[in-house]
């Protein structure tokens, strides 16, 4: 059924003559008659106005389906699409996790081989000084890039070890910074004291030069 016939049927259901409905729309009967004959040339604004006057949605006017039916179909279609996307996302997540686990495995081997190169294995093949190995291993720029760019799963032990090492470095940095700050203040106070002493002894032509 085309739009013209649908408009005509809906108008008849409301028991409205063409002249009556034309008046409701603010049109002459001849203008309205042309609409029912060539409704496929209607603008969106005209469709909305006619649909409102007939008490239906534009969707129902265009398709013959009620809005509820169309919404139900649309929702079902969207639900299927969302499910498809969720499946794709799950596959992507699993793939990324698999890659991260492989990276973690490779890094575990690299950590062990670093210990071998440093001669930090006991007779049973166990690492003697893990902190010493970590100091060399985690300071490698390439290794750091792997962790910084989140290429290792956060649940992997080697990732936790890396975080612990970074925290250790940060704490050391804070301690060193505090020490230099205190040394600077001590040196500043020493210079001030020497200047003050020079001023006090100036009258006696005695001068204490700063070191």
Q: How would you portray this structure in words?
A:
75% of the residues lie in helices and 0% in strands. The chain has helices at residues 3-13, 18-25, 29-37, 44-54, 58-63, 67-118, 130-137, 141-148, 157-201. The protein contains 9 helices and no strands. It is elongated and about 115 Å long. By secondary structure, it is an all-alpha fold.
Write the layout of secondary structure elements.
Layout: H1 3-13, H2 18-25, H3 29-37, H4 44-54, H5 58-63, H6 67-118, H7 130-137, H8 141-148, H9 157-201
Summarize the structure.
This protein is mostly helical. 75% of the residues lie in helices and 0% in strands.
Overall mean confidence score, pLDDT: 76
Question: Helicity level, as a percent range?
Answer: over 70%
Task: Let me know the largest β-sheet.
Answer: none
Q: How large a portion of the residues is in β-strands, by DSSP E?
A: under 5%
The SSE order reads HHHHHHHHH
Based on secondary structure, the structural category is mainly alpha
What is the tally of helical segments?
9
